[in-house]
Specification:
Layout lengths: L1 H26 L4 H14 L8 E8 L6 H12 L3 E5 L1 H6 L1 H9 L3 E4 L12 H19 L5 E2 L9 H5 L3 E2 L14 H11 L4 E6 L3 H16 L2 E3 L3 H4 L2
Parallel strand pairs: 1-2, 1-6, 1-7, 2-3, 4-5
Helix pairs in contact: 1-2, 3-9, 8-9
The structure holds nickel (II) ion.
Length: about 240
């Protein structure tokens, strides 16, 4: 049964391809024959001819910064790269137009608490209220409630995930960009550790970080990487 069905499907495909080829000849299009031949080969083969790119995610914490974040957004746009921004509530409140721009340009916006609070033993409720306050702020600005959170310093309590319906996002590559202004050092660290489905941690409040991030995009795009928002890596 399957064999018969397969044969019918193949015949239909070949017939469709033949119609396509004659169409190309009749239309007298330049290069029509080569295109059509490639098309048939692809249909019969049933294999993709284009290799899918390796995905990698750039993530930026602590912004938006009134100057450097815009510079970064310009550079990402030029390169067709997407990123994820884990913003601090108080920064988003001060620069809502930058948050809106992030959204308009297809970047992911996540929560990094209101004041960069580190979750500790005695501040669970304050920490939670900072997350809620920042979610509300971001909802007001973008019309969307954030689903992703990057806890400052990586301190997290799993029960928040169900309490707030939020997903924590950590990282796999940390070039420690916040403690160095050595652009090429930062670039090298990331380039060396880059891997498919990697999550790079950086900060958009420093000039050196922004310069390094754009160099990283240039280098890794040449190596076949595609810069995607972090949700595409977490759920793939
Ligand atoms: Ni931070």
């Amino acid at each position: 049964m399957m064999k018969v069905r397969k044969r019918i499907v193949t015949s239909v495909m070949i017939l469709a391809a033949a119609v396509f080829v004659s169409g190309m000849f009749l239309a007298g299009r330049n290069g029509g024959f080569t295109d059509a031949a490639a098309y048939i080969a692809c249909m019969i083969d049933g294999e993709e001819t284009v290799e899918s790119p390796k995905k990698i995610a750039l993530t930026f914490d602590d912004g938006p910064h009134p100057y450097y974040t815009e510079q970064l957004l310009d550079g990402l746009k030029e390169r067709g790269a997407k990123a994820s921004f884990f913003v601090m509530g108080k920064q988003a409140e001060a620069y809502p137009e930058i948050v809106l721009r992030m959204q308009e340009e297809g970047h992911l916006i996540g929560n990094h608490t209101y004041s960069h609070l580190q979750l500790g033993k005695g501040n669970r409720e304050t920490f939670k209220s900072e997350l809620i306050r920042t979610n509300e702020l971001l909802l007001q600005i973008t019309g969307e409630e954030p689903q992703y959170v990057r806890p400052p310093y990586g301190s997290w309590d799993k029960s928040f995930e169900s309490e707030l319906t939020m997903i924590p996002v950590l990282w796999t590559i940390d070039p420690m960009d916040w403690c160095s202004s050595d652009v090429s050092g930062i670039v090298q660290k990331v380039a060396k550790k880059a891997k498919e489905n990697g999550v790079i941690l950086m900060h958009d409040e420093y000039k050196s970080s922004v310069t390094a991030a754009l160099e990283i995009v240039d280098i890794l795009q040449k190596e076949g990487y595609e810069f995607v928002t972090v949700d595409e890596i977490l759920f793939d």
